[in-house]
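To the wet lab folks,

You asked to see what we're planning to order before we commit. Fair enough. Below is the target structure as tokens, and below that is the sequence we designed to fit it. If anything looks off to you, flag it before the synthesis order goes out.
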């Protein structure tokens, strides 16, 4: 149970009601972070715009790279909600989620290639406190991916840090998106 209660549909304003309907159609349930954020309609709208816009424009990186980076951040910070939701998104993309079981051993695991290893190490470095990103990391990613993709990767990792820290601080935990209880998103 989250530290701040969810806004129920009968107490939701017009904006939250609209967002709840959209979320139910898309994910089969209202994501708990949305229902908690509904206490502050301005922030709910702002975060919704950021999420929807990012989804539309973050298309330079392959989905497998983008989702691997954000999953790593969620697992490092320990946000069970983000791990659950992120795994569901990877399933929806048709990505191999079995490899996620080996992410702690990514440096030596056969489930990850050299680019995956660079991306995971970069996500780790950005998530550390203080941040430990090196010039060499950025240069190598830039050489392999190009400026635009490195900017997208950096943005996605930073955004996931925001999401996970928000959810973790408010005690928002997994919602069952990968168990089939909440998620009715059609798989590819």
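Sequence we intend to order:
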């Amino acid at each position: 149970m989250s530290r701040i209660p969810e806004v129920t549909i009968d107490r939701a304003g017009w904006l939250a009601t609209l967002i709840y309907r959209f979320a139910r159609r898309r994910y089969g349930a209202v994501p708990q972070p949305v229902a908690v954020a509904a206490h502050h309609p301005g922030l709910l709208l702002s975060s919704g715009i950021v999420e929807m816009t990012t989804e539309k424009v973050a298309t330079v990186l392959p989905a497998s790279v983008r989702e691997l980076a954000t999953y790593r951040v969620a697992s490092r910070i320990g946000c069970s909600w983000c791990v659950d939701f992120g795994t569901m998104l990877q399933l929806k993309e048709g990505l191999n989620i079995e490899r996620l079981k080996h992410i702690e051993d990514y440096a030596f695991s056969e489930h990850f290639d050299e680019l995956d290893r660079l991306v995971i190490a970069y996500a780790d470095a950005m998530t550390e406190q203080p941040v430990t990103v090196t010039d060499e990391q950025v240069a190598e990613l830039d050489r392999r991916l190009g400026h635009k993709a490195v900017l997208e990767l950096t943005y996605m990792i930073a955004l996931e840090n925001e999401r996970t820290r928000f959810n973790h601080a408010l005690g928002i935990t997994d919602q069952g998106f990968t168990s089939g209880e909440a998620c009715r998103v059609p798989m590819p």
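Structural context that might help your review: The chain has two domains: 9-57, 63-169. Residues 181-188 have pLDDT under 50 and may be disordered.

Thanks,
Computational group
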